[in-house]
Amino acid sequence: MLLILNAMWFGLGAFHFSLKPEASARSLVPRDQRGSPLFRTLSDSIRFLGGLNFGFMALCAMLLVFGGLFPDARQQAFFAAVIAVAHASQFAVNVPMIGKWRRKAPGAWRVLEGPMLFIFATDGTLMLANAALCAWITAR
Q1: Rounded-to-integer distance, Cα 10 and Cα 14, Å
Q2: pTM of structure
C-alpha cells in the first residue's frame, strides 16, 4: 500500500512540475514578483523537479510490478530507506524557508500556507512512513 501511495505522490509531482511548471512557480513566487524575467527562468527550470519525481514514481511502480525480484527483507528495507530519503530531500529544503519567510528574507516562499503546506506535510508524512517501514523490516 505504501508503494502505491509513493508512486501516486511522485506521479503527481512529475505531472505538476513537468507539465504545469508555471503553476508550480506561482506557488513559490509572490504575486508582486511574477513580472520579473527570472519568473520565466524559474518556471522553466522547475521542470527538473518533475523529472526527478518521475524517476522516483518509476522506481515505485517497478517495485510494485517486479517486487518478486527482491524477496530479501534487507533489499526491501533498502528500497524503503531510499524512498524515505527522496521524500526527506524535498521536505528538508522547505524547513529553512519557514524561518526565512518569517524574517522576510529574499527568495523565501510560504511553506506553511496553501499548496506548499500540502506538499510539505505529505513529503514529511511519507518520509516518516517509509523510514518506519525500513526500521520495522530491519527489526524483524
Answers
A1: 6
A2: 0.89
